[in-house]
Amino acid sequence: MPKRIAAFGEVMMRLQVPGYDLLSQGNTLKYSFSGTGVNVVSALARYGHMGKLITRLPENALGDAAEAYLRKLWIDTSLVQRHGKYMGLYFLENGFGSRPSRVTYTNRLESSFNTAPQDAYDYEAIAAEIDALHFCGIALAMNDGVRQHMKGLAKAVKQRGGTVIFDCNYRPSLWGDNGYIKANPHYKEMLELSDIVMMNEQDALYTLGINTTKERREDQLEELLPQVMERYQISVIAGTHRSIHSSNEHSLRGFLLRGGQFTYSDMLTFSVYDRIGAGDAYASGIIHGALEGFAAEKIVRFAAAAAMLAHTVSGDTPMASESEVLRAMTASAGDVER
Amino acid sequence: MPKRIAAFGEVMMRLQVPGYDLLSQGNTLKYSFSGTGVNVVSALARYGHMGKLITRLPENALGDAAEAYLRKLWIDTSLVQRHGKYMGLYFLENGFGSRPSRVTYTNRLESSFNTAPQDAYDYEAIAAEIDALHFCGIALAMNDGVRQHMKGLAKAVKQRGGTVIFDCNYRPSLWGDNGYIKANPHYKEMLELSDIVMMNEQDALYTLGINTTKERREDQLEELLPQVMERYQISVIAGTHRSIHSSNEHSLRGFLLRGGQFTYSDMLTFSVYDRIGAGDAYASGIIHGALEGFAAEKIVRFAAAAAMLAHTVSGDTPMASESEVLRAMTASAGDVER
Amino acid sequence: MPKRIAAFGEVMMRLQVPGYDLLSQGNTLKYSFSGTGVNVVSALARYGHMGKLITRLPENALGDAAEAYLRKLWIDTSLVQRHGKYMGLYFLENGFGSRPSRVTYTNRLESSFNTAPQDAYDYEAIAAEIDALHFCGIALAMNDGVRQHMKGLAKAVKQRGGTVIFDCNYRPSLWGDNGYIKANPHYKEMLELSDIVMMNEQDALYTLGINTTKERREDQLEELLPQVMERYQISVIAGTHRSIHSSNEHSLRGFLLRGGQFTYSDMLTFSVYDRIGAGDAYASGIIHGALEGFAAEKIVRFAAAAAMLAHTVSGDTPMASESEVLRAMTASAGDVER
Amino acid sequence: MPKRIAAFGEVMMRLQVPGYDLLSQGNTLKYSFSGTGVNVVSALARYGHMGKLITRLPENALGDAAEAYLRKLWIDTSLVQRHGKYMGLYFLENGFGSRPSRVTYTNRLESSFNTAPQDAYDYEAIAAEIDALHFCGIALAMNDGVRQHMKGLAKAVKQRGGTVIFDCNYRPSLWGDNGYIKANPHYKEMLELSDIVMMNEQDALYTLGINTTKERREDQLEELLPQVMERYQISVIAGTHRSIHSSNEHSLRGFLLRGGQFTYSDMLTFSVYDRIGAGDAYASGIIHGALEGFAAEKIVRFAAAAAMLAHTVSGDTPMASESEVLRAMTASAGDVER
Amino acid sequence: MPKRIAAFGEVMMRLQVPGYDLLSQGNTLKYSFSGTGVNVVSALARYGHMGKLITRLPENALGDAAEAYLRKLWIDTSLVQRHGKYMGLYFLENGFGSRPSRVTYTNRLESSFNTAPQDAYDYEAIAAEIDALHFCGIALAMNDGVRQHMKGLAKAVKQRGGTVIFDCNYRPSLWGDNGYIKANPHYKEMLELSDIVMMNEQDALYTLGINTTKERREDQLEELLPQVMERYQISVIAGTHRSIHSSNEHSLRGFLLRGGQFTYSDMLTFSVYDRIGAGDAYASGIIHGALEGFAAEKIVRFAAAAAMLAHTVSGDTPMASESEVLRAMTASAGDVER
Amino acid sequence: MPKRIAAFGEVMMRLQVPGYDLLSQGNTLKYSFSGTGVNVVSALARYGHMGKLITRLPENALGDAAEAYLRKLWIDTSLVQRHGKYMGLYFLENGFGSRPSRVTYTNRLESSFNTAPQDAYDYEAIAAEIDALHFCGIALAMNDGVRQHMKGLAKAVKQRGGTVIFDCNYRPSLWGDNGYIKANPHYKEMLELSDIVMMNEQDALYTLGINTTKERREDQLEELLPQVMERYQISVIAGTHRSIHSSNEHSLRGFLLRGGQFTYSDMLTFSVYDRIGAGDAYASGIIHGALEGFAAEKIVRFAAAAAMLAHTVSGDTPMASESEVLRAMTASAGDVER
What we know:
The structure is a homohexamer of 338-residue chains.
Chain A: E1 4-8, E2 12-16, E3 28-34, H1 36-46, E4 50-57, H2 61-72, E5 80-82, E6 89-93, E7 102-105, H3 123-128, E8 132-136, H4 137-140, H5 144-159, E9 163-167, H6 172-175, H7 179-193, E10 196-198, H8 201-207, H9 217-232, E11 236-246, E12 249-258, E13 261-264, E14 268-271, H10 278-292, H11 296-310, H12 322-330
Parallel strand pairs in A: 1-4, 1-8, 2-6, 4-5, 8-9, 9-10, 10-11
Antiparallel strand pairs in A: 2-3, 6-7, 11-12, 12-13, 12-14
Helix pairs in contact in A: 1-10, 5-7, 8-9, 10-11, 11-12
Family (chains A, B, C, D, E, F): Belongs to the carbohydrate kinase PfkB family.
GO molecular function (chains A, B, C, D, E, F): kinase activity
Domain Carbohydrate kinase PfkB (chains A, B, C, D, E, F): 3-318
């Protein structure tokens, strides 16, 4: 049954040098608008849910372009606010083979989203309109104002019986020096409120500071995540392990922890066209599967296939329908579809 | 010795989303004009023959663009007629890795070609100008008018001692429900008139409805095709077996049945840039080899190399010269040619 | 006060050769989706109304792209149906100076919209959701099925007290031989149901067959339109007179007939970047002004300015906000806005 | 009645910076292939004649591209030879307003065309295949080898009763110091052989060295050209006077001298999109009109309209059909053609 | 004699929507790097001077691209510092006809340039390397740190006998509420240090707060600027009056006040391709003429022609050489230069 | 310690068909400027040295564009001369998979560089400004004038104690029939003057004509190069062995001979985006390592990593910084860098 799922998060403008030129070689950029929340609710809208975004965009031509773009991504923009003058942007230079992709950010802290005042969002009213709400560790890294909104919204949703989803997504460059120490209390607070959590053993080790004697990441995973699940009363924890063979070829294995049980997808190895946002495709697959009540194995295989497909489309945002993901789960590579 | 080879078939406009965007992501298309007949006679013209197309194009800007494009492809357009208002078109979204390419057709049944009246073509006059004539199963699927022209032309060519070439090319979506049953009598009639036929075991099994107890496609092939050859008095039957590893990597092995003898090319594995039309490159190689009197092994290796190269150029239509195909047959991959 | 305004009409794919190349010179196309209804409700959405489209789009990649595009244009797509396989498209070659622009259509009669079955739309339910509904003479030219839906919807809206808007927009090439005679009864039927009508003296003369002894089009206008208004009990009639100096420079004067009174805008002379759809911008301005209760002079000046601005943006669909139109009404050309 | 018209001349590759960038600003070029002969016979082919080109192109990828391009322009390439390695090219930076367009040539003297050996062309055989042959003063400036071929071909055509057409087209930069003195005997020799000549008063004054006491160019024209006509027994002389208001707006008046009588077109003033090659459009109009037996006024108006339209299309080569030129002669600027 | 001329100012990234699309319509941007200082010293480098830029760029891919771009513009980058992470950027949507161009800025206050510490520049060392230094009112609007650097550098240059150039360039949106009052003391301080000043009557009236009873801007100019010149002991004051007919056509008249004498250029009317930065072209012409000792009339005509040409090239930065400007001063519009 | 390193060599314009189209399919080209010398000194400038180019460029728009491009590549152009009208250019069609890339040259012998007069370069003055000078076998193939300059410059640098670098780079197509015999004395003369030499066993065998009984290229290398080193008193010899798996995948192993000792890099296998110029990246790595005093193994691994990275960027010219090469030496492929 379709759900009303919202995400709270910043919209960024992505400015990508076409092909494989560097910024210092090219003279054109391809632009689009994205963000973890954008990617997740757009993917969920393609799976048949209503996907809403809770954010603020500037009141100018950039904000107009962003809002139009969100609508094109099938996102319901009725909760999008228009205030202020700025939005964050990032430049992307595509890697090739042995040369990694490179992202350069502009100053996002002055964005409409990151400077929203205390009373910007009516937590109760928003919670009343949605069944589930998605948050991400990137927003948590911004500032106290954003963190207040995250916690306020999460509490309101929880209280009304909605589902709180949290993607840990720890980005070292955003937290700065002693980042894990700064981040720790906020992550804990979010986990207390969360039902579905995207994380892996790194988050447990570093952000939550739980110790292990294991060395292989698979062993660490199986030791640490059940502890987190129990400690924070989380119903679903999921994530991926990724191996990078070259800028153009990756492998990925998804895992799901539910009811005390780990379930894994096959290790998928695939050609990569656009790596950014593929993690959000995985998260969307998990959320869709969990909300629709899929069996554990179907959830994790669906999410892994969704992530794999997201590497084959341009842009941060997944574009596959449910039926396309289902086919990618089972079928081998196919010929032209006519 | 160069031959005068014609093809009877529809010209389609191909509208391709550049790069790997979907139609719902992009805003530009790259266009060209193609069709099985176009591809085959253009390739044969590059091998030194005179390549003519027998078709109808609309009398408007689209028809002008199509005819200019055919000329650029080295095709003699003196048998191209200009009447009516419409032509078929198809949209192509390139696949990548685990995501297949996707083709979306517009309604082609109202095209100038598919609505040509009974007396549109002077079969005798056309037959007098050519040494060989190529037909394709796609046209056979259109309507009775087109089928009448195919049979009329084939008979006229046969009667004058010319060579009739038929590529079975059964497309399920074109024949609709109970397609094999509808198609069967028309395929039989065409095979009665044909000297060189492109087909594989699938066509024998389903379109012609011949039974087999074999399971491997190679065994089915070797059992069924000699029966077809004998039944319809065909001098050459050829085709390929293709395996698809990803949208970007395929394998292909060509076969040739002549004088009761099967000859195979090596299994070629190669990178794929543009898969559409590669089967026509294979057919052109077979036709060229057969008309030029190559030995069986040279024919099938030439055709397979031509098909492989056709996957490396953009557009439906093969671009390689005879010397380029010959080099691709023998040489390993080479450095930049200066 | 914002209204809920819908349009009933076909969505076409526009395929434009970039710059000033002909189709036979270029190899790329820029695509977008438009239609009279699209243009009108998108413009009205930018003026603050809710703009809905009542149409059918194919259930494939083209339909996906079209629906996403409509959403990007700020159109509410909740009344858009997805059935069938085809949609109409047109190719546009831009004119320059003494060379006129050229449009080439594909066969639209097989489109999802034009083949909608009798029970495709629930007239009553739709009428219940909207305050006003816009129709266009282009749709009226299609076939009996479409005409039935137009009249059915118009009646339902009228019955519920909504506003029926009709843009005469007679296109000779769509009606064929004896077009005016064929069109006449359908135009009359639509005018009986309409409150706001876009037309000029040509429509009265030829489509409605009213005679005049006047020769100047201005005099014909002032003689004929009041007769039409009275005969069909129409509350607002509006339109434009256009003069074309070159592909790149036009003049336009808007008129409005209301309460027995003609009001005219100044004759505006302006540079033309993209002429298509500018008439829809004028219509949107009239509708907005009429529904918002502007004074007659403000209505006609607003609509003329909206039309002028629509010539300066790419694509068929107007992009200006209400404040941009208001500024264009009063201000002389301005410097860069920073 | 359609004629077989050939042109003898070099094919150049045109490399144009898109838009209005300078070479030092941009990083892409749009390429095409042209030349006076190319432009003239392509235009004549669009008017229904058979247009052939007599030239030499290199035996490599550049030559392949050029020959394909000529075919796309509707040119019969059966007289095109393929030898050597080089072809001339030129870079074009578009001017805008007060900034003139700029052309930069590469060294063309080593081109396949300009290094054709003495026995490259079989003058008699070529003359037997054509009704008229066009030459241009640009080729005359190249070297003795090219001049020999021009004179040999002209004599052969003349002897068989064909029509020799010569466009004076004196380019100072090609003849170098004392250019008029060097050019004079060659121009005289060509004029002796010519039936239709494109020239104006400048050619008479400087290249032929005829004196005048008149000062206005119109008066010089009327004094000098009849002397030239008589002296060289030329049946038609035609040309234009051009005024340049800005890079984007020119005026042009055509004249025709035939049977001792001057006929003039109106002075046409028009927007300019691509000025290069417009003179060849005028020449093609004159040739078409003269060969088809139009009345003098129709010839000169047709040629002037063809020249005007040629300023509105991209590329050096005219694209208009006869009916499009006829419409441009009479009609005022028109709205979009649907 | 070539001079060593520097400018102190911020480098901005310009992100322009190609053609005439809005940000909400397009998906690509063309980027370049500019700024008043960039434009001025690049133009002066094309006139034969050494043009240096004093600025700070981020230490990342954006900074690399900017510095490479400055070098391509012929700017000496030996005084460019690389620190920090951000740079200002602006989006440009081209206007057309009655629709004005629109600029949207991102938050520039956090840029490397605007956050340079107190000791970032060694004023004395810099002053020792240059003959003249250019400042602009845009930088003056940034913050106290930037203002300190401007004044420190100006004093150091003045003290060593160098020439201080100041372009008033008051931008209301940068100074905010009560902007004139805030700006006044800083403008006065800069004028005290300046030798060559770009300003007009608006600056005198509003920024400096001098009263007038005159109403026509020409009269205000002639009354107010001599007072400013005397009060601040400025040797040259220059500026322009611009009229905007449409986004594509402007008029401009330059003036120069020197030795108590006003000199004016003709009123130039011209087609506009890219308006931004044309004021800097005018300033560069004035600076070049003043430093080279041109007569007053030649200075102002040179500067006006340079400004006119700058409207015809893409990008903010002038591209004309001295000889191109000189030709534009005298010649009427010319034909293609071959 | 940064060195002043120059290269003597021709600048070529590269005109590349975008994507994988052939010249006869496309209509746009991407252009840049390169050459062995350009690539080497640009790479060395990115490693922190001062990179100068000694060359001649035409005095026109092409030369302007080339010089601006060199500056953008971080090259010091103070030794670049501007004379003459022509420069060499080459067209590049990208290969794909089994289809090799193809280069087509224009006639370069008339270029400004190749027609420089005897007194064009002041050898002594140039030698005084630089620490090392790079030459290439391509220039040696041009004509006696160029060879005279090479030897004159090499002698002057050698005499002042500078380092002479010579890249053998024998191109059969440039030397023509009996090329090795023609080339032999010139190669010997250059080797006499050289300190660092890029070559492999092929050069020793064919250009220098030294015999071997070995068959494997590795054995030939180890037998022949020490003989060359001793005979010509060269301090460093280096080069690569390359294997080509497809147009898109190559392997490469670098070697270094110094102090009688061979050192090898690992065999690197990598995806290829743009193969041209990768040999120059290897040479730059060797030069940088040798001049900076790296250990032999670090030199050869640095050079091999630099070559590998050069295959991943567009254009002939390497773009990697020293730190990027160092990371590519050690790290496995990495994820997006944020």
